[in-house]
From TrEMBL:
PROSITE patterns reported for this sequence: FE2OG_OXY (PS51471)
Species annotation: Rubellimicrobium rubrum
Molecular function (Gene Ontology), one example: ferrous iron binding
Annotated binding of 2-oxoglutarate, by residue: N107, L108, Y109, R192, I193, N194, L195, T196, L197, R198
Stated name of the protein: Alpha-ketoglutarate-dependent dioxygenase AlkB
Cofactor note: Binds 1 Fe(2+) ion per subunit.
Record key words, sorted: Dioxygenase, Iron, Metal-binding, Oxidoreductase
Cofactor(s), by name: Fe(2+)
Residues that, per the record, bind Fe cation: H118, D120, H174
One matching Pfam family: 2OG-FeII_Oxy_2
Length: 201
């Protein structure tokens, strides 16, 4: 029996993936990163994000001075690589009723990277969940409310944990306050990789 935590409606399964499963996922993601190298998107305000990103799937998440959006091509001009099968299996296991994911956003947190509180709202169909897979160093994940401000709750996400941001929690504010350097040996060069699978259209 798996345990599930409920964090303001965000469902978290600690230890969802075994170490061999994490290794398989990581191998697929490292080949995506070779074909579509991570880059630091720039926000509307002209500031580069501390998290490096790339994507797999039909769409990739992108930001520059024009704002946040999904793009069909990596900045190199090439289409994004396909989402690895092992990653799709996780989506099917935790979101069996959902449509097929169209984007796997790959967030690479090297030392000092963080992600401020935000909502995932660049997708057209908000009835579809966002599935998040954590690999590598532990990260302090903060979840707030649907509205801005108010109280928040945090949990450490560890390598192999899976979270689903869906249903009534689909638009909750969330972010990564900090990552514990050296807490995992999974990622070559250290750090954390988070995958978020999304239906975009
Ligand atoms: O890194 C994480 O665990 C969260 C990532 C996230 O919220 C996002 O990519 O929108
Ligand atoms: Fe998010």
């Amino acid at each position: 029996m798996r345990t599930m935590l409920d964090l303001r409606g965000v469902r978290v399964w600690p230890g969802f993936l075994s170490r061999p499963e994490q290794d398989t996922l990581l191998a697929g993601i490292l080949s995506v990163m070779e074909a579509a190298p991570p880059f630091h998107p720039v926000t509307r305000w002209g500031k580069a994000m501390s998290v490096a990103m790339t994507s797999a799937g039909r769409f990739g998440w992108f930001s520059d001075r024009r704002g946040y959006r999904y793009e069909e091509r990596h900045p190199s001009g090439q289409s994004w690589p396909p989402i690895p099968d092992a990653v799709l299996r996780v989506w099917e296991a935790v979101a069996p009723d959902a449509r097929a994911p169209e984007c796997c956003l790959i967030n690479l947190y090297r030392s000092g990277a963080r992600m401020g509180l935000h909502q995932d709202r660049d997708e057209a169909d908000l009835s579809q969940p966002v599935v998040s897979i954590s690999l590598g160093d532990e990260a302090l994940f903060r979840v707030g409310a649907l509205e801005r401000g108010g109280s928040t709750e945090s949990v450490w996400l560890r390598s192999g944990d899976v979270a689903v941001i869906g249903g009534s929690a689909r638009l909750v504010h969330h972010g990564i306050d900090r990552v514990r350097d050296g807490s995992s040996d999974l990622i070559p060069g250290g750090g954390r990789i988070n995958l978020t699978l999304r239906v975009v259209t």
